[in-house]
Every structure is written in structure tokens, then in C-alpha cells.
Amino acid sequence: MKNLSPNALIILGVIALIVIVGVGWGAAKQTSKESFCVTCHAYEKVSWDHGKHPDIGCIACHTKGVIRDKIAGMRKVFLTLTDQVDPHRSNLPSYKDKINDNCIACHMTEEKLALMPFFKERHDEYRKHSPTCMGCHEAGHVVKLRDLRRPEVRLKQ
Ligand code: HEC
Ligand code: HEC
Ligand code: HEC
Ligand code: HEC
After folding, report:
1. 6: DSSP letter
2. Is the CB of 77 under 6 A from ligand 1?
3. Are 33 and 27 in contact (CB under 8 A)?
4. Distance CA 44, CA 140 (A)
5. Minimum-distance ligand to the CA of 132?
6. pLDDT tens per residue across all 157 residues of the chain
7. Rounded Cα gap, residues 25 and 23, in angstroms
8. Is residue 57 a contact partner of residue 63, using CB atoms and an 8 Å limit?
9. Is the CB of 95 under 6 A from ligand 1?
10. Does the CB atom of residue 37 touch ligand 1 within 6 A?
């Protein structure tokens, strides 16, 4: 490295940075696909296949932002690889308020509401009766299918 001019070092640095960012971005993309999610979440896949959103990837409803997703994801991969979880077991906590925001981001955009005034009117009323969309819509998963798992908690104790 001694013989390299400062300019060459800068160029090398930039190339290294591009490679690192590229690999990171690629990994983030791959691990956001439903094909990745279902390697661990078989029951959720079945209940999602039969729900109203089989064409919408898991992440569209479940994202909390890419950084938080990936940090939570690393923890989950660790828990799984160290054999602390059993996918046959019962429900996991879900973050309903965040999921709810994601429902709204797709279904209640200004354009959609403007196109469907009745939908808006009725839903303004409906939403007074339930804090989340899930109170009335079994949207992501057919809950009966998802709940076929055994009732013990998923994290082994
Ligand atoms: C390596 C296995 C594995 C993969 C792959 C995986 N998960 Fe998980 N998932 C887990 C484990 C383990 C938990 C339970 C974590 C806990 O209890 O803290 C979990 C919990 C969850 C939960 C409930 C808790 C929460 O954070 O809301 C959701 C929703 C979820 N995963 C969605 C997904 C999605 C979407 C993907 C794909 C982008 C995915 N998972 C990929 C293992 C995995
Ligand atoms: C990535 C965007 C997206 C997200 C997130 C999303 N949806 Fe959907 N939803 C769609 C699309 C696309 C369809 C199917 C086409 C249609 O009927 O509009 C659909 C269909 C539906 C339907 C059926 C409509 C009908 O005519 O039968 C309901 C109800 C629904 N979604 C509610 C929800 C709820 C509740 C959530 C949150 C848990 C949610 N959606 C999250 C895009 C989304
Ligand atoms: C109190 C119950 C209730 C709540 C809460 C509720 N909905 Fe609905 N939703 C309904 C009913 C009933 C219908 C069918 C009749 C109608 O369109 O008014 C419906 C219809 C829909 C449709 C289909 C509209 C169409 O005709 O294509 C979508 C999409 C939808 N809701 C999304 C949502 C979203 C997103 C939320 C959360 C922000 C939500 N709903 C909250 C009761 C509810
Ligand atoms: C249309 C939105 C939507 C899509 C698409 C979706 N989910 Fe969900 N998911 C939900 C909602 C809503 C809940 C919470 C249900 C409840 O508790 O009312 C949930 C709950 C979960 C949970 C935790 C709760 C439990 O019972 O264990 C996991 C794990 C999960 N989903 C994984 C997935 C995976 C994996 C995919 C893709 C194969 C997926 N989801 C696709 C909306 C969605």
C-alpha cells in the first residue's frame, strides 16, 4: 500500500464502500422477501395464502422501517439458530399499531379516499368502534388456520 498515491487510496476506499453498501443492500433486499420469511413462518404462510393478500409480501404489512426490521431480524435468526424457538408453537406478539399504519398507507391514501367518498364516510364511522382495522378485518391471515399451532409459547423456556 505504501506506493499508492493518496488519490489511488481514495479510489480504493470508494470502491470498498460501494461494495460494502451493495452487499448490505442486496442482503437487506433478499431478507425482505416472503421466500425468506416462510423458511421460519410456515403457519403464517398457509394462513396468508388463504387470506385476502396473497399477492402482497409479508413485509408490506409487517415492516417497522428497514433498520428496525433488520435488527429484530438478526435477533430472530440468532434465536432460531441457537434452537430457542419451535415454529409449531403458539402466537407471537404482533405490533398492531404499526401494522395498522401499514394498512392505512395502502388503503387510505388521499387519492383512494377521494375516489371512494362512501368508503371514507363509512370508515370514518367504523373506525370510531375499533382502534385497529383488524378489529373488523381478518386481513393478513385466516386466523383459524394460523391458530392451528400448539398452544405453548413459542420461545422455549
Ligand atoms: C430465522 C427465522 C425467521 C425468519 C427468516 C423470519 N422470522 Fe419472523 N420470527 C422469528 C422468531 C424466532 C420470532 C419470535 C421472536 C420473539 O419472540 O421475540 C419471529 C417473530 C415474528 C413476528 C412477530 C413479532 C414481531 O416482530 O412483530 C412477525 C410479525 C414476524 N416474525 C414476521 C416475519 C417476516 C415478515 C419475515 C420476513 C421478512 C420473518 N418474520 C422472517 C423467526 C424468523
Ligand atoms: C401493500 C399494500 C397493502 C397493504 C399493506 C394492505 N393491503 Fe389490503 N389490499 C391490498 C390490495 C392490492 C388488495 C386487493 C385488491 C383490492 O381489492 O383492492 C387488498 C385487499 C384488501 C381487502 C379486501 C377488499 C375486498 O374488496 O374484498 C381488505 C378488507 C383489506 N385489503 C384490508 C387490509 C387491512 C386491514 C390491512 C392491514 C392489516 C391491509 N389491507 C394491508 C393492498 C394492501
Ligand atoms: C367497525 C368495523 C370496521 C373497521 C374498524 C374497519 N373496517 Fe374496513 N370494512 C368494514 C365493512 C363492514 C366493510 C364492507 C362494507 C363497506 O365497504 O363499508 C369494509 C370494507 C373495507 C374494504 C373494502 C372496500 C371495497 O369496497 O373495496 C377495505 C379495503 C377496508 N374495509 C379497509 C379497512 C382498513 C384499512 C381499515 C383500518 C384503517 C378498516 N377497513 C377498518 C368494516 C370495518
Ligand atoms: C395484509 C397484511 C399482512 C400480510 C400480507 C401478512 N401479515 Fe402477518 N399479520 C398481519 C396482522 C394484521 C397480524 C396480527 C393479527 C392479529 O393479532 O390480529 C399478523 C400477525 C403475524 C405474526 C404474529 C402473530 C402470530 O399469530 O404469530 C406473524 C409471525 C406473521 N404475521 C407473519 C407473517 C408472514 C411470514 C407473512 C408472509 C408469508 C405475513 N405475516 C403476511 C397482517 C399481515
Report:
1. H
2. yes
3. no
4. 9
5. 3
6. 567 788 888 998 999 989 888 888 888 888 888 899 999 998 899 999 999 999 999 999 999 999 999 999 999 999 999 988 888 887 777 888 999 999 999 999 999 999 999 999 999 999 999 999 999 999 889 988 888 888 888 787 7
7. 5
8. no
9. yes
10. yes
Per-position b or e across 90-113, b if 16+ CB within 10 A of its CB: eeeeeeeeebbebbeeeeeeeeee
Query: Which of 44, 50, 106 for a ligand 2 pocket mutation test, highest count of atoms within 8 Å of Cβ?
Result: 106
Q: How far is CA 81 from CA 51, 75, 86, 100, 111, in A?
A: 29, 10, 11, 30, 44
